Automatic annotation (TrEMBL):
Listed name of the protein: Alcohol dehydrogenase 2
Fe-containing alcohol dehydrogenase-like C-terminal domain residues: 194-379
Source organism: Shimia litoralis
InterPro entries: ADH_Fe/GldA, ADH_Fe_C, ADH_Fe_CS, Alcohol_dehydrogenase_Fe
Catalytic activity entry: a secondary alcohol + NAD(+) = a ketone + NADH + H(+); a primary alcohol + NAD(+) = an aldehyde + NADH + H(+)
Length: 381
């Protein structure tokens, strides 16, 4: 089977090994003549980034790059990116990287033409309608990890560096016009990033599948996304050059992020404040939280995950699924607790407060209260 295709759902996706060679054509399709490539510091000097800049330059699109992006990007990175975009006279963004590069790239394209401050666009009610939609620059997204799925998402996660809170900025036009999913770009990812990002995709699928909101399309996607992770994440972890496994993980990432339009839940609600305060890796933090959250949600999701277990070829229904998650985490060397993750004395009150106001909280199938969230968190410490 050829692992190459063009998809138009949820946006235009050029999927297949080697398709980064189409970057200039993708910019043309998005109406971009002078792109600013936005990525994080770690990727700035890597070969895949240099090659992409070469492709842009050779096509007469320049080779402008902004890479002053922290692992958990914040409002200062956004302001510097907007300055680079406007001073360079750019007309669009190539958002390139994992969650940080993609989210900040999307945000720069969104903010560059706005007059109101960033936090006016937080994902609360209809605040997104405050934006001047015509001033949002077009975006081409190029993921280099397989986890966040931000390439097919309509939001960016950004840390408020003063309050140490992760905020979601939402607008429908955050959805990139064109996405290049080239699994060859993920071949160089080290094992612990492969595991952490892959388990972020898995958490998106598990939480979307658990969420009580009505969205059968997402439900189907979440289930198949879990199957792809189950089959291919161990392979991608064991052999980073296994291109078939890398391709299916890239699909799982895009599927998880598309599916979570249905909702996220307690895993992300806890992971967001933990990551914002202690700068832990997002996907790895999710993986640490998942076993306890499955038990927390058990009364609401037991039957649902028995069905999922059947589809996934897992014996013993819900319990079998939980055992599978424990086994998967162990096989990928995921820490069992926040202490093992390096967060030895977490501020419980602060994390609980952050979790309860996180937008993911509303998608959890069991209502999260101060009391039960505290109990849940203490099981993870
Ligand atoms: Fe996530």
């Amino acid at each position: 089977m050829s692992l190459t295709a063009n998809w138009s759902y949820p946006t235009s996706v050029r999927f297949g090994a080697g398709r980064i060679s189409e970057i200039a054509d993708a910019c043309a399709a998005a109406g971009i003549k002078k792109p600013l490539l936005v990525t994080d510091r770690g990727l700035a000097n890597m070969d895949i980034t240099t090659r992409t800049l070469d492709l842009l330059e050779n096509a007469g699109l320049g080779r402008a790059i902004f890479a002053d992006v922290d692992p958990n990007p914040n409002e200062k990175n956004a302001a510097a990116g907007v300055r680079a975009f406007n001073e360079g006279g750019h007309d669009g963004v190539v958002a390139f990287g994992g969650g940080s590069g993609l989210d900040l790239g999307k945000l720069v394209a969104f903010l560059a033409g706005q007059t109101r401050p960033l936090w006016d666009f937080e994902d609360i009610g209809d605040w997104w309608t405050r934006a001047d939609a015509d001033a949002i620059a077009p975006i081409v997204a190029v993921p280099t990890t397989a986890g966040t799925g931000s390439e097919v998402g309509r939001a960016s996660v950004i840390t408020n560096s003063e309050t140490e809170e992760k905020k979601i900025i939402f607008h429908p036009k955050f959805l990139p016009s064109v996405v290049i999913c080239d699994p060859e770009l993920t071949v160089g990812m080290p094992g612990f990033i492969t595991a952490g990002t892959g388990l972020d995709a898995f958490a998106h699928c598990v939480e979307a599948f658990s969420s009580p909101h009505y969205h059968p399309m997402s439900q189907g996607m979440a289930l198949e996304g879990m199957r792809l992770v189950k089959e291919y994440l161990p392979r991608a972890y064991a052999d980073g050059t296994d291109l078939e496994a890398r391709a299916h993980m890239m699909s799982a990432a895009a599927m998880g992020a598309t599916a979570f339009q249905k909702g996220l839940g307690a895993i992300h609600a806890l992971s967001h404040p933990i990551g914002a305060i202690y700068h832990t890796h997002h996907g790895t933090t999710n993986a640490v939280c998942m076993p306890a959250v499955l038990q927390f949600n058990r009364p609401a999701i037991e039957d649902l995950f028995s069905q999922a277990a059947n589809y996934l070829g897992i014996q013993d229904g819900f319990d079998g699924f939980c055992d599978y998650v424990d086994h998967l985490n162990a096989s990928l060397n995921i820490p069992k607790s926040l202490t093992e993750l390096g967060v030895s004395s977490p501020d419980i009150d602060r994390i609980v407060r952050g979790a309860l106001i996180d937008p993911s909280t509303g998608g959890n199938p069991i209502e999260m209260t101060e009391e039960n969230t505290r109990k849940l968190l203490l099981q993870i410490v």
